[in-house]
Amino acid sequence: MTALWHCQEVTSPSTAGAVRQGSLRELNLAVVLRRIATADRPPSRAEVAAGTGLTRATISAVVDDLIGGRLVAEAEPAPRTGAGRPARGLVLAGDGPAGLGLEVNVDYLAACVVDLAGTVRHHVVRRADLRPVSPTDALARLAALAADARAAAAGQGLTLAGAALAVPGLVGAGGLVRLAPNLGWRDVDVPALLAGHRLTEPVDGVPRLVVENEANLAALGELHAGPSGSASFLHISGEIGIGAGIVLDGRLYRGARGWSGEIGHIPVHPEGRPCRCGGRGCLERYAGQEVVLAAAGLAGADLPADTAATRLADLARAGDPATLAALADAGTALGVAVAGVVNLLDLDTVVLGGGYAPLAPWLRPPVVAELSRRVLTAAWSPVTVRPAALGARSAAVGGAASVVRRIVDRPVGWLARSG
């Protein structure tokens, strides 16, 4: 592929040739930037040329464009003992475009800024029980949090190039939230409600706002931040509601209508407790955060959303019997639901994210026990169960990171703006 691009570097000056030249520049910019972004260490210009098959002259011009556009920077060269001047390495710039990740959940709002290299530069969680709040008011509060994030980014020399908003519900075309049962939202046009707020700067090829299911964004974050080799996995976000993101062969599986992953509404006791969705015995009614807190004797405790799991972990670590029993019961219910998904999709990895991440030491044993009992292939192909690499902030970070990956994949849109 790189050889083909190399062969197309020379084009005629005709109109058609000019179009091809522009397309070729766009392609070369993306190839070089991805090469720098995925390198194990800062590569030199010569190493990028060798790795892409492009000529050194082409690499020099492309790298100069990327540096001028604040997408790439030159790193200090490593000490060299031999003759000659050491070459400077190339790294993703830390003062260019950034992504804004936002999250609306049942009991908190979050905003996160991630730079081009994937470094989290700002992250704030605000406690708020949003169930009695209208969607308009909830999103107005979120917009204020986004404005603070935008100011924080600007103070660090960053420009927000796009935003991704995570919502715990079914998201349809155009960002319409069809149903978020734990929030009480139905047919909420989120982009329209946020239209009056300037969240980000316009960048060609990068949507100003993408609305996505929170478990999907968390799974995307895990795909790029988790251990190498995890190309297919089930990412479970455990909050008051429970959602799952399904990654198959390195791609997010969305389903026919984009609504896959509603694991929280898989019945684990078909005639069990009533659920907000209208069904009975759903997983959320046995392993959701509020249920676990109540079973641990913490019902009604004044715990901020970002510390509830930490409090449970502290009690479990201290050997509190009620907490240990609550987590064991939640893990068992979770294992029953997950086993069905693993049997259906032949997954080899389950990732515990959201509020489940800090509780993984206590949830994992009962989950593994149920998988061992119920997964047909478990005897010779055990399923790995591990905490999320991004922990409880997976959705917001994953959303912000999805923005900057668009720029890495198509840097010409950013360069057109900055130029």
TrEMBL record:
<protein>
    <submittedName>
        <fullName>Sugar kinase of the NBD/HSP70 family, may contain an N-terminal HTH domain</fullName>
    </submittedName>
</protein>
<dbReference type="InterPro" id="IPR036390">
    <property type="entry name" value="WH_DNA-bd_sf"/>
</dbReference>
<dbReference type="InterPro" id="IPR000600">
    <property type="entry name" value="ROK"/>
</dbReference>
<dbReference type="InterPro" id="IPR043129">
    <property type="entry name" value="ATPase_NBD"/>
</dbReference>
<keyword id="KW-0418">Kinase</keyword>
<dbReference type="InterPro" id="IPR036388">
    <property type="entry name" value="WH-like_DNA-bd_sf"/>
</dbReference>
<dbReference type="GO" id="GO:0016301">
    <property type="term" value="F:kinase activity"/>
</dbReference>
<dbReference type="Pfam" id="PF00480">
    <property type="entry name" value="ROK"/>
</dbReference>
<keyword id="KW-0808">Transferase</keyword>
<comment type="similarity">
    <text>Belongs to the ROK (NagC/XylR) family.</text>
</comment>
